[in-house]
User: What shape does this take?
Amino acid sequence: MKLVLLGVNHKTAPLELRERLAIPPQQLGAAMRRLVLRPGVREGMIVSTCNRVEVLACQEQNGNALEEHALVHFLHEYFSVPAAEIEPHVYEYRERDAVHHLFRVASSLDSMVVGEPQILGQVKESYSIGREVGAVHSELDGLLQRAFTVAKKVRTETQIGDSTVSVASVAVDLARKIFGSLEGKCVMLVGAGKMSELAARHLLHHGAGSLMVTNRTYDRAALLAAEYNGEAVPFEEMHVVADRADIVITSTGSPEPIILPEHGQKWMHKRRGRPMFFIDTAVPRDVHPAMNKLDGVFVYDMDDLQQVAAGNMAQRNIEAEQAEQIVAEEVERFQQRLQTLDAVPAMLALQRSLEEMRQNEMRRARSRLAGLNEEQVAAVEALTRGLVNKILHAPLQGLKSAAREGNVQAIETALKLFLPDGNGNAAGKEPGKKD
Assistant: This one.
């Protein structure tokens, strides 16, 4: 198998280029069909996400110059993007390095957020489409199945995905710890900043029941509320209705805090002590720091959230070191398996040749064995088979060892020693000639 992986990702290419190279899921099958029509490409798969576009292919072992650069030509032609714009951003891996890269991608070690779970699902989806259209079969199938096993092992044996690392996801985790469940909780958005909108979206996605939106410009509040099937509240009424909210996310441009301890006291009295969670994404802060002193009130500003996220990221980096070691070990195991498979034809040829010799000798001795009964003939058969197996043991072990070490010359030498014509035919027998 001649394995090649070509691609661009968030580390090598700007977003503008990645957008031009992205392939929608509904077009992946057709793209893979075109890929395997390239000269010299036996199997192929494409992974396309917001952060990467990668082409993985098995190519002919002894391809010509055109086939050697088939994947590069595919990128240029399929996307109609000039080579000069793509090539500075393309990375290429071959053989062992391609396996290593694929295992890292599937295990989320090459992601923008290390440990995020989405990439494994995206690789599996590409694999399924590739199988469906016939672009992925024998060789890539085995490689991809191994990549999925490695990714599962990384998830099982490390805690790389246990801690969240984005501000929005940290906010969701903290809210879950405070309330136990987000089911039916009311979220209030004060201001319409991008960070607060993202946090609100995460909370609603994870079970929060309703959304209120207030903004100095009411039309903006109404537009955002409509997008999430929520309720728009006039800004001047914010303090009147805020007690209905379990989670308040703020992002105004006010130079002074707009939520003060006296507001919190009134709200907590109306709520009969039920907790309130404030996510303050504004700089300067919208929520007065003294609010944190009230019973049942939990306030996190951007510094708090980023510290939690940074701490989680540091923990992920520690886990990532262990995950990298797992991947390296699995790459080594996969390579050994490939090398062992390379020796299988030689081992089978050797076994077949010696078995043919044994059977020929048994046929020649048939007349001399005519006086033996069935049990005695079976004993002779067993004796000769045992001798062949003993003779084969050392050469087969040597071939396996040579394969593990990648010693192709030793495999070829063994074939010449035991199979002089080098084609799986025993010494003293002409190919195709019966005794």
In short: Strands lie at 2-9, 41-48, 52-59, 91-94, 186-190, 210-215, 231-234, 247-250, 276-280, 297-301. The domain at 2-162 is CATH 3.30.460.30 (Beta Polymerase; domain 2). Confidence is low (pLDDT under 50) at residues 422-435.
